[in-house]
Amino acid sequence: MTEMIYVTRPFLPDLQELIPLLEQIWTNRVLTNQGPFHQQFEEELSKFLNAERVSLVCNGMLALSAAIAAAELKAGSEVITTPYSFVATTHSIAMANLTPVFVDVRKRDLTIDPSRIEAAITPRTSAILGVHVYGNPCDVEAIQTIADRHDLKVIYDAAHAFGVRYRGKSVLGYGDFSTLSFHATKAFNTFEGGAVFSATDAGRQLVKNYRNFGFADELNIPAIGGNAKMSEFNAALGLLQLGHFEEVRRQRAEVDRRYRALLAGIGGIDVLPIPEDVEANHSYFPILVRPEFRVSRDELYEQLKNAGFYARRYFHPLLSSLPMYRDLPSAGEDRLPIATEASEQILCLPFYHDLAEDDQKRLVEKIHS
Ligand code: T4K
Fold this sequence. Notes:
about 375 residues, Aspartate Aminotransferase, domain 2, Aspartate Aminotransferase, domain 1, 3-stranded antiparallel beta sheet, about 15% strand
């Protein structure tokens, strides 16, 4: 039996490269609490991504929670956001006792539609939380203009956007805070991990408070905070992974190029374009299975699975349809037609750096047949 091909397969460096780093941890016995690897990874990451004021954290969810806490939003206020994302995005808003207000996405890249944001602003609105979904940058300029006009904070969930550059600049440099995930399934992974990028020193200090119990030093605890620290193991791995990222990105670009060529001309299957002003990281390969295709998205998903290709419906169900959000006034399907349609048609194909050309051909052959 042929092995199942999953939606992703994490990149791992050669184990031999990791051993000396593990030996250092074993020798100095600093396992966590912002030790030497943590410090080094934080500095190198900032240089590598060309984005300032980075704070490492232990995963992408807590990166979002830290950013929301650091944005100091008014208690009980509303946060305008997209329904088209991973569940962590909306849960991070709700877990801070804020109300998510869903706004539809744009057809061309499935990011939040700025032309619909202003109509959703009320006196209770405190922030806009956009998602650079699949690494597609939101319309950061339009969103900032609206935020400035209404005095709102801007947070970007950039979990998919490691290394993405927009108009020659890191996409992490926009908004008040941007958050990354280094989960095993991401284009850049530290097994578990994440980071927050802050626009100001004061914002970064608040993220640090959140991350480490509000400690200033041994005797001074001037702020309330929790524990979102990254361990030395994850930080050492991150340092190692940085050295491989550009090669991984190049390989992913090649896999992406092959899929686009193989899928071209299949009626009813659409691929999202890569915008010209974006240096992509090729983190996912989403296709849209349109109604004119021979079978539905769910039938295609099942048939591919039976043939050994485990594609995933990222992002279905739509977050606004989940039981805890569907009664919100902004959650109605009629208000979110583009996100609803995308969530019904989306399928993320297996996609990773060393996906073999033969496997891609077999998969596309299956779609054809
Ligand atoms: N914001 C956004 C926009 C996000 O997409 C995410 C996470 C977050 C925030 C939160 O970041 P984290 O707190 O997770 O750092 C996965 C990931 O768990 C999740 O990180 C990710 N987004 C989401 C889009 O996908 P699942 O439930 O699909 O994962 P799972 O376990 O089914 O894995 C998918 C496939 O990957 C498996 O079929 C096999 C392969 N795999 C997975 C793991 C965990 C491996 O080969 N090795 C592995 O270790 O959620």
